[in-house]
């Protein structure tokens, strides 16, 4: 575990933004230790992390429905147009 000098206090909002990295074990050792120290004192964030973890676990078991190639192409075109700020293609 990181020593007290390397621990950083994460406000709840910042911790929420790091949940994905935390669950994917992508935080540095000092970030991970800081994250864990926040969870140790914050019931709300512990509950949030548990909910996200449960959602990720549940989604892994949902089968993918096939999408027709035409529908896929149309959705991708709409998404690309939206990203570029255009109306509809």
Please provide a written account of the structure.
α3 packs across α4. The longest helix is centred in the middle third of the chain and has 18 residues, at 43-60. With 89 residues, the protein is mainly alpha-helical. 65% of the residues lie in helices and 0% in strands.
Proportion of residues in extended strands:
under 5%
Distance between the termini: 53 Å
Q: Residue ranges: pLDDT <50 for 5 or more in a row?
A: none
Q: What form results from the Cα inertia axes?
A: elongated
Helix content: 55-70%
C-alpha-based Rg, rounded: 19 Å
- Tell me the number of strands: 0
Give the biggest beta sheet: none
Succession of helices and strands: HHHHH
What structural class do the secondary elements suggest? mainly alpha
Averaged pLDDT: 89
Number of helices: 5
Write the layout of secondary structure elements.
Elements: H1 12-17, H2 19-23, H3 29-41, H4 43-60, H5 69-84
Task: List key phrases describing it.
single chain, 89 residues, mainly alpha, 5 helices, 65% helix
Q: Can you summarize this structure?
A:
With 89 residues, the protein is mostly helical. It has 5 helices and no strands. Helix 3 (29-41) crosses helix 4.
